[in-house]
Amino acid sequence: MGKVKESIEEEGQLSNPLLLVEESCGGSDENGSFSPTTSMVVLSTFVAVSGSYVFGSAVGYSSPAQSGIVEELGLVVAQYSLFGSILTIGAMIGAIVSGKISDYIGRRGTMGISEIFCIVGWLCIAFSKVAWWLDLGRLLVGCGMGLLSYVVPIYIAEITPKNIRGAFTAVHQLMICCGVSLTYLIGAFVNWRILAILGTIPCIIQLLGLFFIPESPRWLAKIGQEKECEAALQRLRGENVNISHEVAEIRDYTKTLRRLSEASTIELFQWRYARSLLVGVGLMVLQQFGGVNGIVFYASAIFVSAGFSGSVGTIAMVVVQVPMTALGVVLMDKSGRRPLLLVSSAGTFLGCFLVGLSFILQDLQQWKGATPILALVGVLVYTGSFSLGMGGIPWVIMSEIFPINMKGSAGSLVTLVSWLGSWIISFSFNFLMDWSSAGTFFSFSIICGLTVVFVATLVPETKGRTLEEIQASLNPISAKD
């Protein structure tokens, strides 16, 4: 654990008494690696990311269902716009309470509650006869999404060994992409009511799966259930694996934090939490204000405005998005979080710049044959680059950098910021495009460029470190505290 101590000392936290914890409990072996991936870790992650698929299917539902809903229920544009946007409102409501709920009833219980919201919401949509039933169902699904967007990456990060934590947590984003893509595909062939009923299937899978997976050992330690914590960790690591070092590390760190009061939202703004809060909130703000939801939600309209086929462009986006997200999962624990974020944000900068350039050339009546291709290339570069890192890594890092006593309040705040940014961009995008198509994308490009600077100067590398090591280095707890 000498390397751990050196890495923490490099951050300048020499007064942190948790260094004594790190030295006393040691590592899992001489190389500091954990046990191999077990079937229980894989099963637990699969059950958790079933919720991520629900997330993606809810986001992707409104596009293929639009024509059928509008035609059958006679909705005007404003009514359908409300139906689409109320999902984000529900997600913000879910985000506000997500941290507190998961701290009170646990990670599994929170996932269960979220899926009940989603199932009821999908059924309201599937059997709706009037517009307000549609809106109620969409709002309930949004509330479930808000809970899932916080608790899924938190749960996965807390159950996985440090050497695979990044990749497993990033599967959350991969499953969101799969949910969006498959909903687009299935929606092209089935009625919107059937599509809503199909949305309940992954919800039911997760609900049933929760009975077969353990609770987060770190949450159990936090609430004082030490025997249950050890039993859960043993199930996750395997019957024949010596977990004494990991249990001691979790237990001692939790005992140290127990001397502190449960952090309220106001208490988050203390100096010792400044860097964690800045990194967590900053990544979410930059992720959303880089324009992702405007580009994804209105991709077809962007392609048409640039003179390209909307359907072909949208299909090309899906073809690029899923493989690039999968590549990000593979590289997460090999290259590290920071390098992927730097490459990803640089790529989004280039993609937005190319799209902005295509609109400038279109306005100037230059290179008329090339501008649609330039717009397509720009959007694909943006989508691929975003999927590689900026889509999933902010959620991975959010799940890693906050100590257990403030994870609920901090997680709720960070998740709320993400959904609020999502709503702002998706609501204002069409107005921005009316103002200036080129100016909109050049503005997004500038924000993506600022993301490169932010990552290079402030975001820590968390690859290969336990959650306790990361949090001890970022959030120093002095003897006085």
What's the quick description here?
It is built from 21 helices and no strands.
Structure in words:
Helix 3 (39-73) packs parallel to helix 6, helix 4 (77-126) packs across helix 5 and helix 16 packs antiparallel against helix 17 (371-390). The longest helix has 50 residues, at 77-126. The chain is built from 21 helices and no strands. With 481 residues, it is mostly helical.
Give the secondary structure arrangement, pairings included.
Layout: H1 2-10, H2 18-25, H3 39-73, H4 77-126, H5 131-159, H6 165-187, H7 192-198, H8 200-209, H9 217-222, H10 226-237, H11 244-258, H12 274-289, H13 292-297, H14 299-305, H15 310-335, H16 337-363, H17 371-390, H18 393-401, H19 407-435, H20 437-458, H21 467-474
Helix pairs in contact: 1-21, 2-11, 3-4, 3-5, 3-6, 3-8, 4-5, 4-7, 4-8, 4-19, 5-6, 5-18, 6-15, 12-18, 12-19, 12-20, 14-15, 15-16, 15-17, 16-17, 16-20, 19-20
Question: Can you give keywords for this protein?
Answer:
disordered N terminus, 21 helices, 481 residues, mainly alpha
- How far is the first residue's CA from the last residue's CA? 24 Å
Shape: globular
Mean pLDDT: 81
Structural class: mainly alpha
Number of helices: 21
Portion in helices:
over 70%
How many strand elements? Answer: 0
- Outline the low-pLDDT stretches: 1-34
Beta content: under 5%
> What is the makeup of the main sheet?
none
Question: What is the N-to-C succession of helices and strands?
Answer: HHHHHHHHHHHHHHHHHHHHH
Radius of gyration: 23 Å
